[in-house]
């Protein structure tokens, strides 16, 4: 189910990008085609985490609240780690690693203004991809283990 929804979301993203590309003149429409893979990884990561959470928390309302609270908590912890140690290692947290695959360009400009004196090194994009895939594999393993134990 997670893979099906992720494929549909990625295809929808591709259609929207194609339409906007045609409307804006169509030149260079396929230069950012790798972003389609990033959208797929992003979607699988978030949906896998949500599915894992719902396996451990049976009440749907509570699992939604925990999910949203975790997103905010993770963003805060990641930002604190980045600021405290003057590094980008806080961006490798479970959901943040896939968030970094799809950066908001306007926020990048603001971050560069704020961190002008900062010497934090940038992490290569393949590290974010590997981290995201590792977390997806971990979610799958934990979910499979939980489902096998519950069915006994």
Descriptive report:
The chain is an all-alpha fold and 152 residues long. It is globular.
Outline:
The protein has 152 residues and is mainly alpha-helical. The chain is 74% helix and 0% strand.
Topology:
Layout: H1 2-23, H2 34-56, H3 60-85, H4 96-99, H5 105-114, H6 125-151
Helix pairs in contact: 1-2, 2-6
Ranges where pLDDT stays below 50 over 5 or more residues in a row are none
**Count of helical stretches:** 6
Helicity level:
over 70%
What's the rounded overall pLDDT mean? Answer: 89
Q: Could you state the order of secondary-structure elements as H and E? A: HHHHHH
Taking the sheet with the most strands, its summary is:
none
β content, as a range?
A: under 5%
Q: How far apart are the termini?
A: 23 Å
List keywords for this structure.
mainly alpha
């Amino acid at each position: 189910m997670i893979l099906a929804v992720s494929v549909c979301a990625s295809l929808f993203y591709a259609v929207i990008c194609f339409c906007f590309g045609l409307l804006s003149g169509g030149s260079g429409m396929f230069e950012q085609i790798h972003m389609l893979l990033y959208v797929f990884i992003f979607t699988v990561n978030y949906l896998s985490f949500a599915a894992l959470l719902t396996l451990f928390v049976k009440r749907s309302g509570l699992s939604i609240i925990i999910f949203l609270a975790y997103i905010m908590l993770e963003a805060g912890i990641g930002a604190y780690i980045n600021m405290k140690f003057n590094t980008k290692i806080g961006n490798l947290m479970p959901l943040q690693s896939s968030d970094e695959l799809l950066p908001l360009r306007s926020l990048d400009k603001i971050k560069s203004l704020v961190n002008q004196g900062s010497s934090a090194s940038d992490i290569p994009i393949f590290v974010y991809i590997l981290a995201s895939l590792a977390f997806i594999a971990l979610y799958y393993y934990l979910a499979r283990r939980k489902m096998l134990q519950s069915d006994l």
